[in-house]
Amino acid sequence: ETATMAATKLRVPLGFEHLLEGLAREVLRDQPKDIIQFAAGYFLNKKKLRDEREGDESQAESSNNEPNEQLNKAATLIQSVYRGHLVREQIKNAPVTIIDRATSAVDKRLSDDVECSGDATEV
After folding, report:
1. How far apart, in Å, are the Cα atoms of 33 and each of 13, 38, 39?
2. Closest CA to 43 of 30, 58, 29, 24
3. What stretches of 1-123 adopt beta strand conformation (E)?
């Protein structure tokens, strides 16, 4: 059985070495009488800290993902007012188009007809 274990290559999981180094450092620092009990407490504390950190991160993500209806309405209103302003500026500064020229030509012809009919009635 030991021969098969020796022939098998095991890979060290990512973070495992760092975790054991932290435990070894704390064991050397505190010099506990019951190392197994100390290690159990050390790992429980590590797990508690990790769970709290993950809880804080997930809570921050969920609060960032919740849409704020008032902000959305305000943003929509600001955008629509600005777009309306842009359209009004484009219309105000637009060059004279073919339709504008045709409309003014028809208006001129109508005014000429009115003048002509006005002259005929005076006779």
Report:
1. 29, 8, 11
2. 24
3. none
